[in-house]
Design brief:
heterodimer; A: 116 residues; B: 118 residues; mainly beta; four-stranded antiparallel beta sheet
Chain lengths: 116, 118
């Protein structure tokens, strides 16, 4: 098993659909993250969870709804998305119990999302 | 607010050439951490190195070397004798030290696309 696994790898959905992205980490880390990567833009942090508790919501629209049932799993529920939401969504994890930001994050391969 | 600038957007070199990727950062904190990540076409970001603000010693790892200069707020990355497999997007990132009750955030630069031609 690779460290951080994301499914699906590719997703095409209409604006009225509801879908979910899944992330699983096998590294025993306490913190998990969702990032959005759009073309020609820096990675944008969306959400941070530390020990299953959300510690960061970077002004993300409510059509993105995260869920973290335990420290190993992270979901991103999608509904009523817009074409500008098409991007690569990356999940990451780190061992950073105190939130000091000094530990490297380990990333998954991402989900390539296309909104029709 | 923290900021990372990677002024170069695309670099193309011929195999075996040396190449330096620039990174300039801004922060008001005295304690912070700098990272380099590599993103190959598969999409996964691969961690390359971490440097904390108190350690200005340069580091070499095989063909990779990093030059951290606090005086110029730069953390440049050099690949010696580049290879085709080095082709990827390279990101520099900055994390300010978190404080009690809040998590530190990782801020990325826009990335540099490196193409190494045979």
């Amino acid at each position: 098993e690779t460290g951080v696994t994301q499914t699906p790898r590719h997703l095409v959905m209409g604006m009225t659909n509801k879908k979910s992205l899944k992330c699983e980490q096998h590294l025993g880390h306490n913190a998990m993250y969702w990032y959005k990567q759009s073309a020609k833009k820096p990675l944008e942090l969306m959400f941070v969870y530390n020990f299953k508790e959300q510690t960061e919501n970077n002004s993300v629209p409510s059509r993105f709804s995260p869920e973290c049932p335990n420290s190993s799993h992270l979901f991103l529920h999608l509904h009523t998305l817009q074409p500008e939401d098409s991007a690569l969504y990356l999940c990451a994890s780190s061992q950073d119990p105190e939130g000091l930001g000094n530990q490297p994050q380990h990333f998954g391969d991402g989900t390539r999302l296309s909104i029709l | 607010a923290q900021k990372v600038t990677q002024a170069q957007t695309e670099i193309s070199v011929v195999e075996k050439e040396d190449v330096t990727l620039d990174c300039v950062y801004e922060t008001r904190d005295t304690t912070y951490y700098l990272f380099w990540y590599k993103q190959p076409p598969s999409g996964e970001l691969v961690f390359l190195i971490r440097r904390n603000s108190f350690d200005e010693q340069n580091e070499i790892s095989g063909r990779y070397s990093w030059n951290f200069q606090k005086s110029t707020s730069s953390f440049n990355f050099t690949i010696t004798a580049s290879q085709v497999v080095d082709s990827a997007v390279y990101f520099c990132a900055l994390s300010e030290a978190g404080y009690t009750g809040a998590n530190s955030k990782l801020t990325f630069g826009k990335g540099i696309t490196l193409s190494v031609r045979p």
